[in-house]
Structures are given as structure tokens and as C-alpha cells.
Amino acid sequence: MIGLVVVGLSAGVASGQPTLTPTPTPAPPTSVPTPQFPFFPAPAPITPTPTVTPTPSPPPIYADIFVPPSPPILSVTPDSPVPVGTVSTLTATGMAWPYPGSVQFLDDGASIGPAVPVTAYGAASVTRTLPPGSHTLGAVFNGQCPSNPEQNFYLGCLGGTMSSASPVTYVVIAPTPAPTGQATTSILRVFPTPAFEGFPAVLLANVAPRRAAGTVQFFDGSTPLGAPIPVTGGFALLITPLPQGAHSLTAVFTPTNAAAYTPSTSPPVSRTVNPLVRLR
């Protein structure tokens, strides 16, 4: 038997007759192997980025987020306490731009004059001479919306706003009432003259009018000499030793009834106590 091979056909003999049978074609590979490179890694697969559609933001609402300016800060000069007749200045600060308005200053809850417009620097002030006594001072800021429509839209300002400063206690000292009693005079005499160490000094105070009741306190400079001595018949007497050296002596009269008589102080008396000369 002679066989012929034709590409794509196989030949054979069956029952003495030649036959041709088609050679089956191999199936193509399902996947192509990725070539491996000994020195470079295989490239990573590229994943497409999904497209995201942005959600539009709602427009801002300014009218519901309005925050009023800070309350004013009240200060008063000069510092308390002050004597009666002092001109005091009340100043309110801290009203920030762009809020215009005015400040009403208060004294114990009552208005101190008309409201004062706020300056471009956010301040307002007023001057007053306050009566004697303790005062509770205050300041109320009446803020208004800016006149610029763009500022109003940005700030969400729909109307005015009021804010109060912390109160300040301020004391004005009342004057000492003038004495109404009868005036007195005091005169001091010192003996002996000259004075020597070791010998007591005699201090005699004369108070006029003689019917004025009270006491006399003797002083050596600013140092009291003993206790106050009652005045009897217009006189007060003190006998006391004085150390060697110069002295400035005075007598101060204090009445028992301040409504009836006024106090008085004698002119100072200078006295020098000399050292004692000892004879041998």
C-alpha cells in the first residue's frame, strides 16, 4: 500500500480503495502568556478613572448668621475716688467697624445727657462733674446696620442691636463740712530759759476762750509728750525732762464739743537744752 500525505489530509486504503481524511486543525490558545523580562517588571494595567459629577453648593444665607458686635468697654478717668468738683470723663470703646450707632451713658440707671454718636474709631465719650457719693456708671451701645447695602448683605444685618458695658463703681468724696463752732486760739510758753540737761521743762498752754472745754496734747516735733491733758480754766500744764539738743515744741487743743468750739494749734516754740557744766 502506498500512502500519500497532503497537508491538511491524511491518506489510507480501506477495502482496497484509497481514502483521504482531513487532518484536524489545532485550536488557538485561549490566552497569550505575558512575556517575562528578566530585568524589568511587567507594566501595571491601566484602570480608567471614573467621572464624578460635582454637586452644586447651595447659595449662602447671611440673614440667619448675623452676630452683633462685642459689647462696649467702659472706663472712667481720673481714677476713683475723686474729690467733689472733679470733671470726670466716661469713655466707651470696643464698638468695632463697620457698625455705626450711639452710646447712652448712665448714672445709677439714669441717662447722662443725650446719646453720643460713635466715632469712626469705635469710641464715644462724655464729661461730667458728678455729685458726691457712690455712682454706678454704665454705657449702652445702640448699634445700627451699615449704610452700605453690600456690607449689610455680607453681615446679614436686618436691624439695630443693643449691648451694655459692665458697670463701673465710681466714688466722689464729699467735702469736709466747715467747722461751725466758736474759734479758739492756743499759746505755748516754755520754762526755764535757758534750759539745761537734767532739769525738767515746764510747758504751759493757754487756750482762749477760757470756757472752752477739751484737752491739750503737747508735741516735741511730731512726737507726743505724754498723754493729752485736760484744760482747766483755759490752761494745761506739763512738766517733763527734755534731752540735750534742739527742740520744737507745740500744743494742740482738741475741744470736747466740736460743734461748740474749733480745734487750734499753738505756734511752735524753739528751745535748746544745753549740757550741764560740772565744776570740779
Beta strand %: 35-45%
**What's the helical proportion of residues?**
under 10%
Question: Which blocks of ≥5 consecutive residues have pLDDT under 50?
Answer: 1-7, 61-67
Secondary structure: number of strands: 23
What is the mean pLDDT?
A: 80
Largest sheet: 7 strands, mixed
User: Alpha-carbon distance between the termini?
Assistant: 188 Å
Q: Can you tell me the CATH class of the domain at 73-173?
A: Mainly Beta
* CATH homologous superfamily title of the domain at 73-173: Immunoglobulins
Query: Which quaternary structure do these chains form?
Result: single chain
Radius of gyration: 56 Å
How would you classify the helix and strand content by structural class? mainly beta
Secondary-structure element series: EEEEEEEEEEEHEEEEEEEEEEEE
CATH architecture of the domain at 73-173: Sandwich
Gross morphology is elongated
- Our count of helices gives 1
Could you walk me through the main structural features you see in this protein, from its secondary elements to its overall organization?
This protein has 280 residues and is mainly β. Among the domains are: 73-173, Sandwich (Immunoglobulin-like), CATH 2.60.40; 185-274, Immunoglobulin-like. Helices cover 2% and strands 43% of the residues. The chain is built from one helix and 23 strands. Strands 5, 7, 8, 9, 11, 12 and 13 form a seven-stranded mixed sheet that branches. Strands 15, 17, 18, 19, 21, 22 and 23 form a seven-stranded mixed sheet that branches. Strands 1-2-3 form a three-stranded antiparallel sheet, with no helix packed on it. Strand 2 and strand 3 form a beta hairpin. The chain is elongated. Mean pLDDT is 80; it is low at 1-7 and 61-67.
